[in-house]
Amino acid sequence: MAKIKNNNFLNTVHEVFTDATQEGVLHLYAQGNSFSGRKIQVNNSELFHFGTTGYLGLEQDPRLKMASIAAIKNYGTQFPLSKSYISNPLYAELEALVHEMYDHPIIITKNSTLGHIGVIPSAVDDEDVIILDHQVHWSVQNAAKMLKSRSVPIEMIRHNRLDMLEDKLKKYIHSKKHIWYMADGIYSMYGDYAPIRELMELGKKYPQLRFYFDDVHGMSWTGKNGTGYVMSQLGELPPNVLLFGTLSKTFGASGALLACSDRKLHQKIKTFGGPLTFSAQLEPASVAAAIASAKIHLSPQIYGLQEELKERTGYFKMLLQETELPLIDENNSPVFYIGTGMPKTGYNFVNRLMKEGFFVNLGIFPAVPVKNTGVRITISRHNQKEEIEALVDAMVHHFPKALAETQTTPSRVFAAFNMEYHDNDIPKIQRTGMKVEIKETIEQVSTETWNRLMGGRGVFDWEGLQFLEKVFQNNVQKEHNWTFKYVFVTDADNKIILATFLSLALWKDDMLAGAKVSKSLEEIRKTDPYHLTSKVLSTGSLFTEGEHCFWDQTHPKAMEAIDILLQTMEDLAEKNEAKMTVLRDFKQKSPWHNPMQGHGFVRVQMPEACYIRLTDVHDIETYISQLSSRNRRHYRKDIIPNLEKVYVETKNHCNPNQLTQIMQLFSSVHGNNLGLNTFSFPKALFHNMNEHPHWEFILVSPKDRDDDIIGVMFCYKNIGRIYVPAFVGMDYDRLMDFGTYRVLLLKTIERAIALHMDKIDLGMTAAFEKKKLGATVEEKYAYLQTQDNYALELLGIMEGQ
């Protein structure tokens, strides 16, 4: 496998969101001429609203509305000037009131996203380092990434893992001025907390530690003067904490705020904070609404509002505890998350609840791992006990129906979130007449059956898999030991609908990352060889490329067979503790796409695959004559002159000296290809190739030194008349002098023609060079399912550092 294109993350998010939109659970439009907060109109239906972030319902408070109306009448719809020059007449009062709430200097920002972009680059020095909780809000991560251009290191730890944080502190304590830890106070998906008090103890132990908390979801509904969850834990704001709150969401107005007790730092940020200087200021209506809300926060009334909300959230929590619904985190925030596991189950469940009259939010990638899709329910003061109770009743009724309709079970959902499920008597999904069979070795599979299904596809005909099983077993290093599984899905008449082979192996997490990231990680692996590596269950293997699944698309149960395979792989991944599941080498338009996304897989684009068909081609001259005029010029100009410099031979068996050389050449290519960063192969591979009748070597040497090999192509002769140049080895120091790669490509084509092969599978990478010699290029895609997003987000942070 080779490097994934850099824009794949955005493409993947686009596909996931498009899928959810088509299912009617995302990018909806509210309707109606008015909005009360208690109900929301969607698709011409009035639904009870359990998706708001206005937990106290202040956005509907008459005092805020009247203040906004008056401000528009008095000052207009906006005050179109930068705050660096002059603020609208209402700003001074708002700043004074919010300062009074916190009893510390504050800065008002247009919104939290622009606020982070303004504050973080101003607060963090070039001599500092940033450590991110991997669930900290996207807006914080995005702002932190801006500091890459100043070479500020950015690290990431797993969610709330203080042991990992302390390891990072020890790493940087002697080299950095300040160590910034950035986290949310309340996390927006699961509603769980940052361990504030434990973090403060770490701050005492490590004086260089600074904290940056985004507490927009903790605002107003808790804390003195509604200053939020973080302040409720701190009591007083210490100098080593920067705290972001909000004037929108549950505050009821618009904008965000920074509280900072370090006056020198506060002045530095306020003087010039990027968007704080250049962005438009809050509209007069927003400032006026925020003033009205701040006055409520500074009055005893805020505690009454908090108690009303607390009563509702407590009631909802109590009702949930009486059910078997998978509540992912039990806490006292107004945010609740019911796991569904697979996206298709989430879509089904949300749609069922909407039909029952309840609006809830879908939690989906990238906010959560795709496999951790669920329903986020928020409680507000608008919600009354009768509809809270009705929502729980509807969830209890429809949750099992959504599971059954999407062919999953409660145990699968609980397992996806690493939660224990105690009822072991839940039956597995039954499919009439369908059966799945798993073989542990190719020796248990009929040669005729396997080659009939998969024989003409690559280095995975029956003989090829027998070879791979022998190579990747009983090796010293664990990355060289792979487990193979052979999966068959059959109908009631034992007719095979689907067949594939799987490999379970150790992969480097950065295999598909940029070369710069891999180079950095390889430095760490010199002392910690298994840093950021994971066990992966994949169709095919890291040694093979091509269409790894036989699938009878015409069978009436063809789509059910896909579901059975995916569930089988899920079970195998859980049993073998695999962190990622991969199905790969699909075309762009594939009938597998919808079932894969529904099962929690995301699609990523792989490098293009190349192949050459040799029908009615009997010699290399005929082949060259069929190339385009441009490609024939390339052949005459860039290849023929090099043919005169080299000696080329094809060998089925190399002597010990030759074998040593070709192993070194392969190692050279492997070590230089950090864009495709995999573990090396065991030495047993090359020795077994040398003894296997289906493998041969195309060797290139300088014409005057036929014992000095400068290039090698490792080629497999598939029983289906497919020639597979699986790997290449080259001497990079002499690559340009002899045009080694181009010579190897030409001689590979010539050899395949001589063997009367029907097709050459040239594999991935170097598509440009292969295309110049007549190769057809195809886009290829893989589908990935990860246990969590940590590695993905960590590698994203590392890109560009």
From TrEMBL:
EC number of this enzyme: 2.3.1.-
Domain Aminotransferase class I/classII large: 76-394
Keywords assigned by UniProt, alphabetized: Acyltransferase, Aminotransferase, Transferase
Designated name of the protein: Bifunctional aminotransferase class I/II-fold pyridoxal phosphate-dependent enzyme/GNAT family N-acetyltransferase
InterPro entries reported for this sequence: Acyl_CoA_acyltransferase, Aminotransferase_I/II_large, AON_synthase_class-II, BioF2-like_GNAT_dom, PyrdxlP-dep_Trfase, PyrdxlP-dep_Trfase_major, PyrdxlP-dep_Trfase_small
Xref: PANTHER family: CLASS II AMINOTRANSFERASE/8-AMINO-7-OXONONANOATE SYNTHASE
A GO molecular-function annotation: acyltransferase activity
A UniProt-annotated Pfam family: Acetyltransf_6
Signal sequence bounds: none
UniProt cross-references to Gene3D superfamilies, sorted A to Z: Aspartate Aminotransferase, domain 1, Type I PLP-dependent aspartate aminotransferase-like (Major domain)
Domain BioF2-like acetyltransferase: 633-769
Keyword Metal-binding found: no
Essential cofactor(s): pyridoxal 5'-phosphate
